[in-house]
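hey can u run this one w/ uridine-diphosphate-N-acetylglucosamine bound, need the structure tokens asap thx
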Amino acid sequence: MASYIINGGKPLRGEIAVSGSKNAALGIVAAACVLDGPCLIENLPHISDVLTLLDLCRTIGATVEIRDGGAVYFDPRPIHTAQVTDERARDIRASYYLLGALLARFGQAENYLPGGCNFGTRPIDLHLKGFNSLGAKDTLAYGKIILDAGGRLKGDNIFLDKVSVGATMNIMIAATKAEGRTTIENAAREPHIVDCANFLNTMGAKIRGAGTDVIRIDGVERLEAGSSYAIIPDQIEAGTYMIGAAMTRGDVLVKNLIPKHMEPLTAKLDEIGVKLDIQDDAIRVWVEEGQELKSTSVRTMAYPGFPTDLQPQMVAMLTSCTGLSKIYEDVWDNRFQYIDDLKQMGAKITVADRVALIEGPTQLTGAMVKARDLRAGAAMVLAALTAYGESEIYNIHSLERGYEDLIPKLRGIGGDIRKSSDILEAAEREL
Ligand code: UD1
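ok here u go:
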């Protein structure tokens, strides 16, 4: 089993470029299945979640070609079935977007229940409620969801009882070809929802209000497509490297990001004493020599609140700040499992239900720890880069689901990180 070996204690310094947004890419690839012509998707991150979804699209007939420079040519015209039969659909969360996409295309859809990171209950009742309102009946049988509208979906008013990124995206995709108008109220406002709406509009859809809590979709009969579309930068990847710069007391220019999307994080970094130079599409993050960072409190929330997907990285950083920090996890009911691993590295953290209390500053020390899920894994990498001595992080496939070129990018800013399989290969070459 491959692992990451990290020698910590050195500040990260230099420039790093952010890749395309994972969560936007997942919505956009699924949405591309609704089109009536081919498109070119640019700035798609080549990470395992996205590659798995592209493969699932191939299994239902889509033509998917990776072009020079990494752009993906996607032709949905050969899609011939509404049934996803490849069990890899169980490995990723976003395979559920194929339900919305196939419903829009065929009026019916069948897919496995989705997988993804395990941080508590992850129901899909709101997705189903939306599909039901659009006229599709759902049945659950043998671990699969079967949806049938008996023809074209019909627009309706849908109020989401809870703000859900996945349900908003899925219902929006499904409604693009529904008869009449669909209104989603209490919609999520995440940048990747806006990006997916922009993609669909570029291809001929009529979606208004994405980025607000009311989205209106006027269904169209065809989406002629034929254009190219570049995915937005990944807000969470950008945030992870910004936190890494602050946590190691380094100086990093994080390039190719949208500063507006980073505001929930920049506000907190500024509050605790981190220096920021916010430019048009880059942010320089550094800590002055001898500057002590202060504790703070953070509550995770739907956008534009502090993103839950930066919560583990933030907790890791707060171990280095002076005083008692509090983190409230308001989105997921069990997203503190990784804290035991941080404690193995010397962190002083107490968890009570959805609140973590972090006592700092602590000098972390290297340990052997697990990447329990994607963002918990990112927190482990940052902790290991800050810790004295060597750490080994295993279960790294979780991390490879969401960070493109993690090792070369971190090495480019001075991180001493290697993959154990690369070390083995190098040793074998020398023999
Ligand atoms: C997406 C992100 C994930 C992120 C999360 C919150 C993707 C592929 N994943 O997940 O990284 O952590 O947004 O920003 O984009 N809920 C229900 N019923 C539903 C759906 C959700 O009760 O049908 C609840 C969930 O249990 C959770 C909350 O709503 O408490 C938010 O979940 P949601 O926004 O749907 O998260 P995902 O879309 O799964």
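The CA atoms of residues 103 and 338 lie 37 Å apart. anyway lmk if its weird
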